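Entry 12.
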Amino acid sequence: MRVLFCIAGLVMSLPAISVPAMAEKLTIARIYSDPDLNGPSPRALKLAPDGSRVTFLRGREDDQNQLDLWVFDVATMTARRLVDSTALGKAPELSDAEKARRERERIAQLHGIVSFRWSPDSKKILFGVGERLWLYDFDAKPGADIRALTPAGLDVIDAQVSPKGRYVSFVSRQNLYTVDLETGKNYQLTRDGKGPIHNAEAEFVAQEEMDRATGYWWAPDDSLIAFERYDESGVDEIKRNEVYADRTETVSQRYPAAGRPNVAVRLGLVRPRDMRARWIELGTRPGKVGDVDLARVSWLPDASALTFQRETRDQQTLDLVSVDAGSLHERTLLTETSRTWINLNDDLRFLKHDDAFVWASEQSGHKHLYVVGLDGKQRRALTQGDWDVDKVLALDEKNGTVYFTSGRDDPLQQQVYAVRLDGSDGASPRRISAGEGWHEAEFGENAEAYVDTYSDPKTPPQVSLRKPDGSLVAWIEPNTLKEGHPYWPYRESLIEPEFGSLPGEDGQSLLYRLYKPADFDAKKKYPVFMTYYGGPGRQYVNRAWGNHFEQYMAQHGYVVFALDNRGSPRRGRAFSDAIFRQLGKAEVADQLTGIAWLKQQRYVDGEHIGVFGWSYGGYMTLMLLSKGSDQIAAGVAVAPVTDWTLYDTHYTERYLDTPQRNPQGYELSNAFHWLDGMKAHLLLVHGMADDNVLFANSTKLMADLQNRGTQFRLMTYPGGKHGLSTPAMRKHVYTLISSYFDEMLKPRH
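Predicted 3D structure (tokens):
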């Protein structure tokens, strides 16, 4: 389960801005119209392997969801559109597999060019339009610089350029293919992909819950491809109706619900022109299909071996296993254990000039980096302290430096840091990013430069190219808030948030963000719009360019409040593990602590507090209205989980174990156990084609509330997936939410 949107903030106090009487305020129609209010914000930024260019995707002014491919030339310091996605013809209807894949990656609303890959020689770029593959060649003559690699009508997903640039690979109709770029010849490497058998694809829970989007991995020398083969025949097949405006489709979906069977996974090795696969032993116990998960696969730099990370179903044990590429001999390099659960990451980095690797572990109670030898022995800690590493950005072995992001100095900021590979400065890594806000960084392969995307509550995302020491090379997109910027008409209405912390019931601090309403008068009392995600794995409050709907609500007379409860990341395991084996307890207690604090503020109308959440946040709304109806006037729940036995294995069992082993935990975590307490007003919203949090969650809730005689309001969206991602749906649902709270929270005189 992934959060659908992020909101940003910092723990500090800022003065409320008094909005001029004539300042133009945001409207919901404008928030979800073109051009994008955030300005020309590039996405999917990537440095060419040789550092000569930076490529990115950018939405068009007339359609922010139609993405074109752009390039910034470092030598000339200029940017230009490289490929106009509309010039390659009208994209055909996407296959069901590609639609599902984009839904998993939360890009279902995007079209045009949604992803691309550089060739290793920095001369070519592979990209898709619709499901057709194209290659852009910088060395080709104008007019011949773009060529199609696959014919129209061929369903293509997960296209890659091999590490040495000899091949392009892709998945089509559940099988793996390669294209020899020199000869143009196609090779089909697997042939049994059909029905429940999928080759080189990541299964549903890998995409949705493990942050693993691919199902195959090239050896660094192009000699071999490791690929996943999964069989979902043992997974329960559910029949669900996807209701659209003009039709109803009955969909058969293999959905691994909590406590039920997972897919059976195999890991194979195949040569790029040969369909004869060799199979690797994953360690599944005889007769115990789906009792381990294939979490990650990585190759050693010299291609002599690959490693895979094997996770037990209870997610309390993770093995890093090395496999010799020739003999397939296996040995376990290390084993991680946890009394609660292990968080997966992508931070494994092998050293090229030493028999060792960089490994991330939470063994100390915080996520830190370590150097471990190929003999499995830990050599040294690279970082240490009461703070968490977010992710490794780059390993510069030549200069003995590891780059990473962290909230070390402030958990509500994300900054870029450097630490020596010898571990000499692990307790005090060097911060290289500037600006008190949120940085997303993308390093080049040689770690000689990085692309920095920075924002704060009053600064839209700005993109720059920087040296490893943080010094500026060039602005790629300064995105200055000046006349002509889409947000310029609303600049005077921008309200800066206040930040602070509250003590939780167990003594740990709870960080919050608060917007005071436009034209704030301390002598008046204002209704509260309270919003959250609340679930594990996603930080909601951080210091970045904010959420426009929250800004809208503050501009229209609400105190807007958000708080990160226990279970949230980046605060150490003591903070996150409070939810283990029972959901909706610690999280709800913390949010009620926030409500109690709000009621103590003289400017808050304590009788008119409304709560809103989406996905896990929708679940939180149901739990808050059931456990704290006397403190809350009304709530909105969008796409909520209501019964955790209906949600998928990997996410749910991580926190609750299986229903068979923890029946009481499931009972107390399900919303239905607490519905007797729901007295406050509820608006329930759900897309009628949601394949993530199934619509059955809401239909089951509807029936239960009706049987209880509990009145509620309902809005459903024909064809709506989990994110209700079309502009029309977004405009409608947020207009609905704002109107609902206006009715419920603003007293009539």
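Annotation: The domain at 488-745 is CATH 3.40.50.1820 (Rossmann fold). The longest strand covers residues 63-73.
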